[in-house]
Amino acid sequence: MEIRNQTFQDTIIDFLPDATLVIDIEGKVIAWNNAMEALTGVPAEAMLGKGKYEYAIPFYKTQKPMLANLVFMPEAEIEKRYDTVERIGDTLVVDIFIEDFRPSGAYFWAKASPIYDPQGNVTGAIETIRDITDRKRAEQEIVRTTREMAEIIDFLPDATLVIDIEGEVIAWNNAMETLTGVPAEAMLGKGKYEYAIPFYKTQKP
Questions:
Q1: Which residues contact 146 (CB under 8 A, 6 or more apart)?
Q2: Each residue's pLDDT tens digit, 113-134
Q3: Which of 22, 78, 126, 172 could form a disulfide with 187, with the two C-beta atoms 3.0–4.6 Å apart?
Q4: Whole-prediction pTM value?
């Protein structure tokens, strides 16, 4: 029955859409799913049973703790290794940039949790990793173009404001500051027609 259950669990892990690895309490790889093979180019048979942080090599080109290892470590150790870590119960969630993963680096979202046996003892950890590079690059491009647009708008001689699709102010130029007496930092991000108040003393389209 135990073998059958293990096979069933392995099958489920293999069908997970996110790259997933599982380590036992000794830090040895006991699962390395299809998505992880596709992400790293390393087949499961080459990674199963490996320990001493060897599973970090496809990502960092060196042996170092992954997020799954940190679920066993104290908070101070976690904070040393990641700038921002979100903790949801006993689950750790991070966004990270790995410089050496590709020639131009890659952004990943990762989540790790301990695994418990029926008696509540920790027997290992599971980590799922998602490549979010395209999304991050798109966000960076939006920030860059928005900044460039704001710089251009600032030089326009006429008072100008720009709102996004949700009706929030994303640009409020120097001429608009002069006309209304309202600085840009007080208006950027405002919605619900608040930008009309300097003109109409009320919120209106």
A1: 170
A2: 999 988 999 999 999 999 999 9
A3: 172
A4: 0.73
